[in-house]
């Protein structure tokens, strides 16, 4: 049975989520948990939709069972952790928390906050979800913040440099020995001058041969460099359904130019035009403009997707990122192409290296998408980005 504190948490959090006055439901605290939740949901502007949402009712049932089985909460938390492996939220498309997310968070919060570090380590997906809900809903004044230990990011470029340095250090020792040994030989018997000259020529030829592959590697790396892409922060001013394709949406995106860019995205299955309007997004702006089902598209909105593509969402630009600013990548300072050449398939070569890490930070080969206000992110960890 739910305690008064748990019910109070639900009232405070759910009312904040639905923009209702929690004082209006003080008399409902004596009701059972399900009746309390239904009472609050009925007072919202989307009452009919919420009260008749079977999935939402199912999650209310989940928290009721959780409270009944309070002697074994960790088992229930483990089940919830497994549920969240492929989901960014318990209910909905992941663009924002649902009423179900808020209710579940309110009930399990006290159990999660009291977990030991070792137990928390066993629930990475649950903690990722808790962190998302507490920040997205701005619950700092209602709940003690669940601290999340995030792994320190070390760019791959730095790791590579360290490996090369270590390798060179190992090679230095035998080279020193060889040189000292050759000096001793030279003292005892001197080789003819022309023989020495031939030896130098052979050594130089070997060096030249080694340089050739390096140039080829550099050229390939240049082709794959993310700096070829012009990735900018944009604000969707308007969005609507594509007139002749159910799976497509059309957006007008402000990137600081005199005129908004029109972009066609395959997001209709995952979010509504209203959910995209006034949302900051991350997009590639130097793709070659072209028509998608007879509608002109002048960019590519970058989205994160889980493995089976059941959850897809646009990348999240950090608060404070300026409209039109370019995303940067440490160690990749090249100039972007004016317009990507489709024949070179540059985009096809680069996008396989775009992904989110275990904490949801968007990266290219492990290097974060950086803005003046921090990295771009997603609620989906270990996701592909396209």
Key features?
386 residues; three-stranded antiparallel sheet; alpha+beta; five-stranded antiparallel sheet
Write a brief structural summary.
Helix content is 42%, strand content 14%. With 386 residues, the protein is α+β, with helices and mostly antiparallel strands. Strand 13 and strand 14 (374-375) form a beta hairpin.
Structural write-up:
This protein is of the alpha+beta class. 42% of the residues lie in helices and 14% in strands. The protein contains twelve helices and 15 strands. The strands form five sheets. The protein has a five-stranded antiparallel β-sheet with strand order 3-2-1-4-7. The chain has a three-stranded antiparallel β-sheet with strand order 9-8-15, with no helix packed on it. A three-stranded antiparallel β-sheet has the order 10-11-12, with no helix packed on it. α1 (4-18) runs parallel beside α2 (33-42), α4 (54-68) runs parallel beside α6 and α5 packs across α8. It is globular, with a radius of gyration of 29 Å. The two termini are 46 Å apart. 31% of the residues are buried. Mean pLDDT is 82; it is low at 175-191.
Which helices and strands appear, and what pairs or packs with what?
Blueprint: H1 4-18, H2 33-42, H3 47-51, H4 54-68, H5 73-83, H6 99-113, H7 117-121, H8 124-136, H9 156-188, H10 193-224, E1 231-241, E2 249-254, E3 261-265, H11 273-276, E4 280-284, E5 290-292, E6 295-297, E7 300-301, E8 303-305, E9 312-314, H12 346-350, E10 354-356, E11 362-364, E12 367-368, E13 370-371, E14 374-375, E15 384-385
Antiparallel strand pairs: 1-2, 1-4, 2-3, 4-7, 5-6, 8-9, 8-15, 10-11, 11-12, 13-14
């Amino acid at each position: 049975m739910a305690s008064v504190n748990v019910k109070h948490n639900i009232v405070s959090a759910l009312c904040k989520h639905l923009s209702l006055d929690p004082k209006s439901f003080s008399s409902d605290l004596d009701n059972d948990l399900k009746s309390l939740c239904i009472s609050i949901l009925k007072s919202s502007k989307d009452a009919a939709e919420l009260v008749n949402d079977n999935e939402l009712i199912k999650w209310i049932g989940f928290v009721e069972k959780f409270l009944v089985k309070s002697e074994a909460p960790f088992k229930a938390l483990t089940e919830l952790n497994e549920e969240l492996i492929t989901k960014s939220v318990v209910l909905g498309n992941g663009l924002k928390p649902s009423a179900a997310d808020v209710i579940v968070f309110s009930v399990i919060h006290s159990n999660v906050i009291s977990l030991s570090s070792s137990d928390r380590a066993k629930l990475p997906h649950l903690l990722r979800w808790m962190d998302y809900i507490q920040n997205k809903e701005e619950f700092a004044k209602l709940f003690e913040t669940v601290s999340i230990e995030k792994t320190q990011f070390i760019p791959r470029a730095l790791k590579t440099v360290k490996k090369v340095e270590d390798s060179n250090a190992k090679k230095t020792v035998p080279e020193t020995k060889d040189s000292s040994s050759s000096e001793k030989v030279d003292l005892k018997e001197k080789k003819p001058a022309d023989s020495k000259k031939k030896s130098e020529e052979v050594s130089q030829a070997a060096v030249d041969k080694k340089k050739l592959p390096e140039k080829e590697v550099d050229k390939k790396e240049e082709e794959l460099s993310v700096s070829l892409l012009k990735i900018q922060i944009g604000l969707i001013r308007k969005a609507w359904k594509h007139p002749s394709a159910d799976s497509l949406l059309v957006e007008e995106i402000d990137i600081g130019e005199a005129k908004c860019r029109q972009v066609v995205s395959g997001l209709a299955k995952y979010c509504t035009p209203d959910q995209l309007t006034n949302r900051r997004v991350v997009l590639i702006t130097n793709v070659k403009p072209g028509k998608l089902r007879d509608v002109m598209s002048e960019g590519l909105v970058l989205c994160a997707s889980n493995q089976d593509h059941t959850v897809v969402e646009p990348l999240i630009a950090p608060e404070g990122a300026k409209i039109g600013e370019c995303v940067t990548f440490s160690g990749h300072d090249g100039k972007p192409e004016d317009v990507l050449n489709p024949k070179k398939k540059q985009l096809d070569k680069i996008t396989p290296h775009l992904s989110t890490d275990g904490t949801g930070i968007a990266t290219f080969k492990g290097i974060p998408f950086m803005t003046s206000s921090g990295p771009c992110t997603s609620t989906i960890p270990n996701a592909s980005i396209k």
